[in-house]
Known about the structure:
The protein is an alpha+beta fold. It contains nine helices and four strands, in the order H-H-H-E-E-H-H-H-H-E-E-H-H. Helix 4 packs antiparallel against helix 7 and helix 4 runs antiparallel to helix 9 (377-412). The protein is elongated. The chain starts with a helix and ends in a 9-residue tail after the last helix.
Amino acid sequence: MFKKIFILFLAGVFLLSYGLSYGDAPLSLDSLIREAKEKNPEILAAKKRWEASLTRIPQAKSLDNPNVGVTFEKIPRGTLKLNKTMPEDRMLSVTQMFPFLGKLSLKGKIALMESQMAASEYKGKELEIINEVKKAYYDLFMNYKEIELSQDSLKILAAIAKIAEAKYTVGEIPQEDLFKLNLEIAKLSNKIQNLKQEQEAKKTLLNSLLNHSPESPLDAPRIDEAISFAKDINLLYKLTITNSPELIIFSYAIEKNKFAKSLAKRSFFPDIMAGIVQRGITSGTLGPWDLMLAFSVPFWFWTKQRYEVKEAIANLEEAQAAYQAMKNQALSETKDVFTKIEIAKNKVKLNQANLIPLLEASINSSLAAFKSGKGDVMLLLDNIRMLIETKMNYYQALVEYNMNLADLERLVGVDLNEVKK
């Protein structure tokens, strides 16, 4: 009887040491990120908005369409006989509005800033979706680990149940203890089934981010358990200010409003309307021609134009204040996520370097004592169960570390693996 239990213990330790196999081809996070960039609808929509904004730059710098008209003068009263007019009273005219010097250039610069803002929004959406892909991947990884470790716990509980049944048979434990143990086994079996159902939902979320069919199969994910993050907080602050898409959008908004302010000041100056008229267009020979120049007069400069400038100044100051507020928020979030990463690192190292080795050593010691006939079976099983719980905490800390690292990369706007210290 006890020999069989000992074999069960060795099998449990083997499972704890090596885990469950997920196959030879784990789900690659890098390939998922590349696929999301190419296929995610939100990223593609943001890209098209940016491309559309590029086409508005040459439009903004172009002149308005010219006006082409035909005029018949001195038509006899009470008739609509155009052929009764004199040849020189039949005219073809072309007119064109020319904005004051610098206005078109400023409109083009404003459109350019809007395009740069759209490009930053595209980059921000890409970072956002990559962040969601990473978190969905890490969440799926944790689900696999929870199932694996729960199945290990179930095996241990089954071993304990066999011992308890043997003790109940000889009257060493009451039936109530055996009932509680079987109830715990039933609860854990139900938990494993629920985790497997949750796994399907998590896979569907990941598929949706990749623009796949909801039921597309996905392999099991893997996480590199090496902890390599060692960036200085001051470097992260600089990266945030330089690369954060949100901050870049606000900085371009400032530039846009500077150009809008200059454009508003030019509203005090007149635009020019030029026209040319050719007479005698139906006579077979060209007659005399007329030249016309007209100026728009900013007659209401004490109200309309002056308040246009005031509005532009207010918009500029609002953009500058919004940038500073966003900068303060971004730097605060960077420090917050940096702190969470450091805490998660400490948890991972504590479990990896101290708790798990100590528990494994304790189990080996208990196994040796049990083999020599001096060990306590229940104590050995409790140690194995404690090791499983500690490994659960370890993987949870590892997932927290990677999720916070993904958040940090979204905030600073770059892949931190590509940044030198």
